[in-house]
Structures are given as C-alpha cells and as structure tokens.
Amino acid sequence: MTLAGLGVWAGFFGPIQVLLAQQAEAVAPGDKEFVFGLVTGLGSAVSVVANPLFGALSDRTTSRFGRRVPWVLGGGVVGAIALLVLAVADSVPVMVLGWCLAQAALNAMYAALTATVPDLVPVRQRGVVGGWVAVSQTLGIVGGVGIATATGGLTTGYVATATAVVVLAVPYLLRSHDVPLPEALRPAWSTAAFLRGFWLSPRAYPDFAWAWLTRFLVNLGNAMGTLLLYFYLDDAVGYSDPETGVFVLTVVYAVFIVASTVVFGIWSDRLRRRKVFVIVAGIVTGAAALVLALLPTWTGALVGAAVLGVGYGVYLSVDFALCTEVLPDAESRAKDLGVINIANALPQVFAPFLGAFLIAQAGGYVTLYAVAAAVCVLGSVLVTRIRSVA
C-alpha cells in the first residue's frame, strides 16, 4: 500500500509542482499564470467529487479480486493514460482534459487504497500504518517533483511519472489480500439512496463531523504555511534564489515528516490514545508558523520547516488513524473516507486566496503566519469534542 501510495502522490505532484507550469508556459507564454490556475483549479474541483464518488462505487464492487483491487488497477491504468495524454497536449483544452482525467483516475485509486486500512488493519495497529500512509504521501510528493525535474523535458517527465504510477501499484495488486464482497451483501441499487449517502448528518454522526472539521482546519493552516513559501522567501526573507530555497525547505520539511510520523504512530498505538497526539501536533504546527512570522530570515525558515515537519508528520499518522475509528458504517468505508479526504483537498483551493488577501490587505506575512498558527491550534484543540476515541 505504501508503494502504491508513492505512485499516486508522484502522479499528483510531479505535474502540479513542475510539469503543468512548464506546459502552461509553452502553450500560452503570455497567459501562463491564468492557464496554470485554470487547469489546476478544474482538476481540484474534479478531485473533490471523484474521491468520495469512486470510494462509494468501490464499496459496492463485488469482483472476485476484492472491492479495492479493481479500482486501484483501473485508476492506475487510466491515470497513466491521462498523463500520456498530457505528454502530447499542445493546447489548453487538451491540458484541461488530460489533467481532469488524471485527477479522476488517481483519486479513484487513492480512495480504494486508503479504505484498505479500515478494511484490513486492526485498530491497535492503525497508528503505525497511518504513519506509512504519511510516508508514502511525503516521499511521493518529493519523488514526483524529482522525477519531473530530473527527466529534463515535458514528454519524458510525463512518461516517467505514468510509469511510476503503474509499476509501484503492482505489489499491492498481487499481495493486497483484498476481501471480496459477496453479491448477496451488496445493497439494492437506488440512485436517490446512493446520492443521499454522501450527506453524513453532524447531528447523527457528531464524531465524524468533528473529525472532518479538525482535519480541514489543520490542513488549511498547513497549506497557508507552505503554498506561499516562494513569495515569502522572495519578499519577506529577501532570499536571492527563492526557487532553490523552496526546494531546500521542502526537503527539510519532508525529512522531519518521515522521521516523526511512523515513530509517533507506533507510540499512539502502544498507548491506545489518539487525541493527545493530535492536539500536540497541532500546537507544534502552529508554533512553526509563528517562527516564520517572527523570524523572517533564512535560518528562521529552516527552523520553521523542521518544526512544521515534525508537527505535521505526527498529525498525518495519528489523525488518519483517528478518522478510521469514527467512520459511521463498515459497509461504506471508502465513501466515508472520501468525504474525509475533501477536508484535505478544499484547503488547497482556499489557502492561496486567503493567504494573498492577508498579505495584501491585512498586515503581510506576519499576519499570514499568525493566522495559520491560530487555525492549526484551533483545529487540533477541537479534536477534544470527539467522544468515541481516546
């Protein structure tokens, strides 16, 4: 599952961080920012819908290979084809088509993969497995950027990324031990009931609602702290090479995520406690944002990236385990995790606009990172409202 996750995240972030920006510049050099924003924005909109939708469909799948394997296979193959479409795209409409198809397919794959954890992993081991999920995300992002950068061209970058998506999924497809859903246990189809299933009432499922809200807030604070790093280094720190600076900070951030996430996941499992780790992680993440706010220097940025990596690494593993423990229904785990994953995707849409407003109209980078810190702490503290998990 970790290997397959590496491929998924490389498929997401190689294009987002490098290839789509280069392609926008090649296709429309006079409007590259607009084209890049259009393509990625439409792709984000697709991802918000695709993850819970394909998760719900996988919950109903009765293949003899299991509920999740067909979607990992199909999502990986279609995602690779979409990336190959992008490799030859020479117009904005083809870029939009290719990236939206890639987002839909890769989200189908990701929804099925994450559902594997509550399907097959005992509660007492979900912290450490959540840590490996976080490792796959972190290394997949770095690896995707590395593949896209090292291959030295748009076509070769997309081909290499597509290959990684497919090849890294093979061990999961062969060794997942996915459990088939007997035909007799699949609910009768009702379009109205299927659509209603995506609304999970906060009144009926308060712990699920609080888990969603806390994840949204912490991810919003983290996104505000990371998505505008280039401009922070250029404008506030005065770093001479902000592009290289962002890469260095990203590597530091990733190293500390990987160093912390599995260790604290194991610790959480042994203590059989989740909330205290989520609270501390949110406070540490908020402290990192305050470092960036109060010390706008290269040294401050390095310290902030390291602290942010530790806090967010702990959060990724333990909060994922917590979320698997508040799912309303064992029969719709992938759909419900897909709804949870919306709390990961939406902050990526809102954070750049909110951050730009705070920088331009509300006090600059000090305000930006102070607000990011407050949002992270608020999100982590609200986890105390969850009653069914220790």
What are the SSEs and their pairings?
Layout (H helix, E strand, L loop, with lengths): L1 H26 L4 H28 L9 H19 L4 H29 L5 H25 L3 H14 L2 H6 L15 H6 L9 H21 L2 H9 L4 H30 L3 H20 L3 H27 L8 H29 L3 H17 L9
Helix pairs in contact: 1-2, 1-4, 1-5, 1-6, 2-4, 2-14, 3-4, 3-6, 4-14, 5-6, 5-11, 5-13, 9-12, 9-13, 9-14, 9-15, 10-11, 11-13, 12-13, 12-15
Organism: Nocardioides iriomotensis
Pfam family, one: MFS_1
Subcellular location: Cell membrane
Written description of the protein model:
The chain is 78% helix and 0% strand. By secondary structure, the chain is mainly alpha-helical. It has 15 helices and no strands. It has 2 domains: 1-177, Growth Hormone, Chain: A; 201-390, Up-down Bundle (Growth Hormone, Chain: A), CATH 1.20.1250. The two termini are 27 Å apart. The longest helix has 30 residues, at 242-271. The model has no long low-confidence stretch (mean pLDDT 90). Helix 3 runs antiparallel to helix 4 (92-120). It comes from Nocardioides iriomotensis. Residues 164-390 form the Major facilitator superfamily (MFS) profile domain. The chain crosses the membrane at residues 36-57, 69-89, 95-117, 129-150, 156-174, 212-233, 245-267, 276-295, 301-327, 339-360, 366-384.
